[in-house]
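Hi R.,

Here's the input for the zinc ion complex you asked about:
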Amino acid sequence: MFASVIIDQDTKALNKVFDYRVPDEMKIEKGFRVLVPFGSRTVQAFVVELKDFSSVDPSKIKSVIAPLDDYPIIKPEMLELMNFMCKKFHLRLTSVLKLFVPSEIREGKVSELFIKWAKLSENFSDEQTKRAKVQQKIAEALKKTEKIKLSDLKKEFGQSAVKAMIDKGSIIIERERQLRAPYSGQIDDKKIVLNDSQKRAIDAVAGQGVYLLHGVTGSGKTEVYMRLISKVLTEGKNAIMLVPEISLTPQVMSNFKARFGGSIALLHSSLSAGERFDEWRRLFSGEARVAVGARSAIFAPLERLGIIIIDEQHEQSYISESNPRYDTFDVAKFRAEFNGAPLVVGSATPSVDIYEQAKCGEVKLIEMPTRANGKELPKIQIIDMMNEIRMGNSGIFSTQLIADLANVVNEKKQAMIFINRRGFSSFMMCRECGYLAKCNDCDVNLVYHREDNRLKCHYCGKQYKALDRCPNCGSDKIKQGAVGTERIVTELQSIFKDVKILRMDNDTTSRKGGHEKILSEFRITKPAILVGTQMIAKGHDFEDVTLVGIIDADQSLYRGDYRSTERCFQLITQVSGRAGRSKFEGKVDLQTYSPRHYVYKFAANYDYKGFFKKEENLRKTAVFPPFSKIIRILFSHCDENVVRDELKLCYNKLLKVREKYFDQIIYMDAMKSPIKRIKNSYRYQVVIRMKLDGGDEIEEEIFKCTEGNLKSSVFFEVNPESMS
Ligand code: ADP
Ligand code: ZN
Ligand code: ZN
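And here is the predicted structure with zinc ion in place:
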């Protein structure tokens, strides 16, 4: 028999399977970890296939040295998923491997996945330990309790005595076979009585398929998820639930722990590598049966999945942007189908893409249109900042927001002030008339690049002169946007001198526990104002927050991205959802320089459907996804000449593809990336926009053009989240 293996090293040269002979007496299966000779070294490898014949020259083929475990580390489902991902996302087997196998058992490190127990053998007699004092003590200890962890035994009595007893058969070793963790289904801490729309939602999830749970903020989606998971557990199956990292707050985690107790494994970023591995091991052995975590939890080594849930479906963090690049949704869909389980994705603001799928019937739509506590959603007031300027107020805060904050302070309540600071780039806008520069060819906003003082289109690379006067009204009040959290805190503090003002952003939360500290301080302080970035937008349930101020809603609108409007709508809805969550009524002050943009009208009315319709129409007309596909191929290398030459080489091949599919390919060009250099690597890219009717065939041909022995590293992305 022969084994095809992948060598555990992520380099291009090793991106293929190598065949080895399996000695007759050796017992291995697919997914086993083995030792093999490689060149002059002995390395760890993973068996991906077993077969009767190999095309390798019999005189050259080497033999597997030994298996490292007696069970597969990569389970059959995961092997298939690896292959699926390589194909779907154009990845290498060696680079996806790290998603499936923790570093603790990669790179040649040998780590036990199961606990070994020592027991006295049935035919043990005191005769066997005569004249060996230590061995007698070991026997005594084992007689008292039925079994002792082998590692503990060695620690207490020393390696040699234990080994001697194993060798002569006095002690037998049992590998732990974890029993499936029992689940009583009774650990319902709060005893929430489900409302009708929750009941309907739970009943609607029946059988395999993708379900979109569209529920307003506070509609009680979390309770629906938990009940669905409970149901699956009582049926003896397992579950995965994904939430964005920033929603995995201590509050949320303790809710899950309270509900599922020891059945749960929480995979979050503040775990150390060792702790992470422990959780992985608990899932692998079947001790833990529910994996809750951010993106990478989708690779939880659970079998018999009964459901997969993705909360906050619209979140960008579900798309991995570093190597290996993948879309978590596609991975989840594969696993759900493999297990015959439902995939439930939930959001108050689903992506345009998934809602379109729901419209076509590919995804089943479930709606929860009201808040669980029966309260109205907070009223959103659109505040025209242009008007403020005309009235002589050119500061950060509108008169209305200051008045409302004063009210909050008087009533000893709480407020959240949100600013949007995602992305490196900035926009230029006329503060007089609201004019914003757009690309002539693409109908997306241009992005201002400080280093060369130019405006650029992130989709076609076209450059424009930066403006010092507004082409629309002639005003010179055309400037860059964006203020920081620090400045907001300073200015607020000068107005509200005695009020506690807290700040939450990347700077204040970088230390471990920083996050938690700020939140718990906010929780007990009244009145108080919390100023923050994206981090305060979701997952928080503060009863006394009655006001939310959004300083610069426009920021998200002006990113040079066809999804800008969608992002803006999502953000407003999420942030607004923080206000008025309990008995006190909430209000949202939304400041904008373009108050007449359609997104604000729909967002202020919580009219997702209206927004979707408008957006769908616009995208159809401009032929942007989901009605087309954008492919970006990013080349990077430390030598600029190398990238440029290799890009050219690839581009010449691509020209032939374009000729062949002239009707399908709308646009194709090569350019410097908007960020020219990252970590000393020069970056160039090809951007292609094409119609959908060509199927995956064109994508495959395009990808082929990037293959070959290139020095540059090449990233291939479909509908990338960022073009920078
Ligand atoms: P979502 O995730 O949809 O934004 P949550 O799951 O956070 O909403 O629920 C909002 C609040 O409503 C929570 O405090 C939750 O405990 C509460 N809640 C959920 N379901 C019910 C119910 N059936 N009756 C009363 N309160 C509920
Ligand atoms: Zn103007
Ligand atoms: Zn353009």
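One thing worth noting: The pocket of zinc ion (ligand 3) is lined by residues 439, 441-442, 457, 459-460, 462 (CB under 6 Å).

Cheers,
M.
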